Backbone:
């Protein structure tokens, strides 16, 4: 039986999954990106310094990652030496953005797959938030409104956590997380100007001269976020894991892991990073080579040639192309399918022994859950990897604030050459992000982005290999094939961003 | 329902916004459905969008997003927050669009791909088909952000989808529903939420510039800029990272109508010019529209000359 589970909600953008289900098992899954804008064409012929602004509008959930990747690419093209302050501010902005994104991903986008929201009706305590929420839900349910208590109801059928204390605690934290994510974004806005879509990030640094006022506010906000991660986010995640331990073994993608590394310790993007770059192969982890990335379009709605390297990329939309089923291209690394994102980032770092804290955290939580490193490739593994990333990044940001040279410029003076090219790579919250810029006659001649969800939600490639999400869905048991809450849990664990994927 | 006082207020607003004499019939019909003191139901769709406006709506400070969707509005559907999904979500949307689920406002984030409808699909239909169904039943629409209000970056020069604003999409289909435009890339959360509070408390706010609430978009950024004194004293920033008036780096404050200089962003933390970043005119109808009108004009001209090899 064929079932289209689209639109999949609680993710960024327009995703449908076309499934075939036999005897309650998903036997085929096609990931369908449903929205196209054509940023790479819009960027052509524009001033190069428009790029870090325009590419942020690819995604309003992780705009700072695009600003950073674009800045790295332009710095590469302009041969810039960025002052230490400039890179630190880039890091402070980008890192705080990761923290907000992890909280949003867990509480707003994923928790409702596991938590029973109707438990609020049984609340008998006196917490103001919860009493307000309970009374609101009661009023809604008693009213003659259609779809009462939206957007929390209606919901998909399936098993939810059967423990009022955990459910009500998580709902309280759902509300608190909405407050805490604002603090993380306020922290990035101190240096970025606003969130979403920062205006102060440039190749060469940031336009703000950091002072004690900025740094002390930033630190205070990050401390609050850090506290929430340790005291609420991680315990809630572990409670969900205890209620659904089978999800350490569900949703495994069948390719490799790719990470570009995140947050450099020095001004040069090539310096050691908090999370190391690498690609997993059967032989171990290898350094990343951007020339090994090629994008196939056999099943994508483009008539442009398939299998092009990033620097050769072109884009001719063909909305009626017969063989195609998605607007997403199919990037492959040396022809192989890759998963990117938090699980890839943590695993790639762990296997190289780059960051001791990451290793210790993985070992600690794996021992607690009775799983191995390989189980990070799962629904719960992806959630755990985001939480571990959050812990490590929060501490890194606090340490970075101590390195700021107060009252000194954070921006290098520069001239844009008439021609040049550059790559910029970083980790968005949801994975490996690569930008490429080529400048000719002072204008952008070519701009290419290979974005995390392009990898994770890719359709089949020219050799008919499925994308990471497609491969993770096949074989999953679903109780209600028409609704597939189990598939929704897998999809959400990848934290898809469709505006990014197609751009 | 409308009492006489509010009716007169509405009439005054409308004469300013549209000219009462030739108010189109659909707008007259829509206005009858706006009942102050009744919490509006929002059906929130996304077109050629980045979700930045939705994320911005979650950054609202006072009141915050939870209060807004429980006390001041009913969020019937939002792709990022709704528990419902798939066919169940399509059934919900279908009920509203067919008029079976009561009065509602459509909120659209993102532009509409006029010449390539396949470039935006929600479930089983194109965005365009959903919008045409909604036009028959909605009380009115809120265009959230620059893309929905003016086309924005998806509609920038050289785009391949023929992207247009919500208003232009309806006009091309000979429809004239009531549309409130709230531009900004991203939109400021207050601009949207406080427009909704206004709808609850008083009805339709006064609209200017073809549909923007006057209370937020009456004056230019430049006119209220705290660095206006620097401008008068000709204390100009000449390179990125300099303080002073940012006019000579290409600041678009003189061309952009928005209250950023007094409202600030992210709970009043700061704003673009506050961190020495020129205003890029993100709330302007011409935002990013032309390839030969870059964000940082004077700067790029001088460096381009210097960078000649």
Residues:
């Amino acid at each position: 039986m064929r079932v289209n589970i689209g639109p999949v909600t609680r993710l960024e953008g327009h995703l449908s999954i076309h499934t075939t289900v036999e005897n309650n098992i998903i036997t085929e899954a096609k990931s369908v990106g449903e929205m196209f804008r054509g940023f790479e064409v819009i960027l052509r012929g524009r001033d190069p310094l428009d790029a870090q602004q325009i590419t942020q509008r690819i995604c309003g959930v992780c705009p700072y990652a695009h600003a950073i990747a674009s800045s790295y690419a332009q710095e590469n093209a302009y041969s810039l030496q960025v002052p230490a302050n400039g890179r630190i501010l880039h890091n402070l902005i980008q890192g705080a953005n990761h923290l907000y994104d992890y909280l949003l991903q867990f509480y707003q986008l994923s928790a409702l797959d596991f938590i029973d929201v109707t438990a609020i009706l049984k609340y008998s305590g006196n917490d103001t938030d919860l009493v307000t929420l309970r009374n609101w839900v009661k009023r809604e349910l008693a009213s003659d409104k259609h779809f009462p208590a939206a957007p929390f109801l209606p919901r998909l059928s399936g098993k939810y956590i059967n423990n009022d204390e955990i459910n009500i605690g998580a709902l309280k934290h759902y509300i608190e997380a909405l407050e805490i994510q604002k603090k993380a974004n306020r922290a990035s806005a101190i240096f970025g100007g606003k969130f979403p879509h920062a205006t102060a990030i440039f190749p060469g640094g940031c336009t703000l001269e950091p002072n004690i006022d900025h740094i002390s506010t930033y630190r205070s906000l990050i401390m609050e976020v850090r506290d929430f991660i340790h005291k609420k986010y991680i315990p809630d995640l572990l409670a969900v894991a205890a209620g659904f331990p089978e999800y350490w073994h569900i949703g495994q993608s069948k390719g490799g892991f790719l990470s570009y590394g995140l947050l450099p310790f020095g001004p040069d993007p090539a310096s050691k990073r908090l999370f190391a770059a690498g690609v997993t192969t059967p032989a171990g982890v290898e350094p990343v080579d951007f020339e090994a990335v090629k994008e196939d379009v056999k099943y994508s709605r483009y008539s442009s040639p398939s299998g092009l390297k990033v620097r050769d990329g072109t884009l001719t939309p063909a909305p009626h192309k017969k063989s195609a089923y998605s607007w997403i291209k199919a990037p492959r690394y040396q022809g192989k399918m890759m998963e990117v994102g938090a699980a890839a980032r943590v695993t790639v770092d762990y296997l190289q022994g780059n960051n001791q804290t990451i290793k210790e955290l993985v070992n600690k939580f794996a021992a607690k859950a009775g799983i191995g490193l390989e189980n990070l490739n799962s629904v719960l593994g992806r959630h755990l990897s985001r939480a571990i990333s959050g812990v490590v990044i929060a501490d890194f940001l606090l340490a970075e604030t101590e390195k700021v040279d107060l009252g000194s410029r954070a921006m290098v003076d520069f001239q844009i050459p008439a021609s040049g090219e550059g790559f910029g790579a970083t980790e968005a919250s949801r994975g490996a992000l690569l930008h490429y810029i080529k400048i000719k006659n002072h204008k952008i001649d070519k701009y290419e982005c290979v974005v995390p969800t392009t990898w994770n939600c890719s359709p089949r490639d020219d050799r008919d290999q499925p994308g990471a999400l497609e491969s993770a869905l096949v074989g999953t048991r679903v109780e209600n094939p028409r609704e597939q809450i189990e598939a929704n849990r897998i999809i959400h664990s990848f934290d898809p961003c469709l505006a990014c994927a197609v751009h | 329902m409308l009492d006489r006082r509010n009716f007169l207020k509405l009439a005054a607003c409308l004469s300013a916004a549209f000219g009462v004499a030739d108010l189109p019939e659909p707008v007259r019909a829509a206005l009858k459905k706006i009942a102050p003191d009744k919490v509006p139901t929002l059906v929130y769709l996304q077109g050629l969008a980045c979700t930045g406006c939705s994320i911005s709506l979650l950054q609202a400070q006072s009141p915050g997003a939870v209060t807004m969707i429980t006390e001041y509005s009913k969020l019937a559907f939002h792709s990022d927050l709704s528990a419902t999904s798939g066919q169940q979500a399509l059934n919900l949307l279908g009920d509203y669009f067919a008029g079976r689920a009561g009065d509602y406002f459509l909120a659209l984030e993102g532009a509409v791909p006029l010449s390539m409808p396949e470039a935006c699909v929600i479930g089983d239909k194109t965005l365009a088909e959903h919008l045409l169904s909604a036009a028959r039943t909605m009380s009115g629409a809120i265009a959230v952000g620059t893309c929905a209000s003016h086309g924005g970056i998806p509609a920038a020069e050289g785009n391949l989808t023929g992207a247009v604003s919500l208003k232009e999409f309806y006009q091309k289909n000979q429809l004239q529903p009531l549309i409130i435009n709230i531009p900004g890339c991203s939109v400021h959360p207050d601009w949207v939420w406080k427009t909704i509070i206004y709808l609850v408390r008083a009805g339709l706010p006064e609209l200017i510039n073809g549909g923007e609430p006057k209370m937020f978009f009456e004056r230019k950024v430049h006119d209220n800029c705290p660095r206006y004194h620097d401008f008068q004293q000709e204390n100009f920033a000449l390179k990125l990272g300099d303080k002073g008036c940012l006019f000579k780096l290409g600041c678009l404050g003189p061309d952009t109508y928005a209250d950023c200089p007094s409202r600030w962003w992210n709970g009043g933390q700061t704003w673009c010019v506050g961190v020495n970043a020129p205003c890029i005119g993100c709330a302007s109808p011409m935002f990013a529209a032309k390839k030969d009108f870059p964000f940082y004009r004077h700067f790029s001209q001088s460096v381009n000359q210097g960078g000649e090899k």
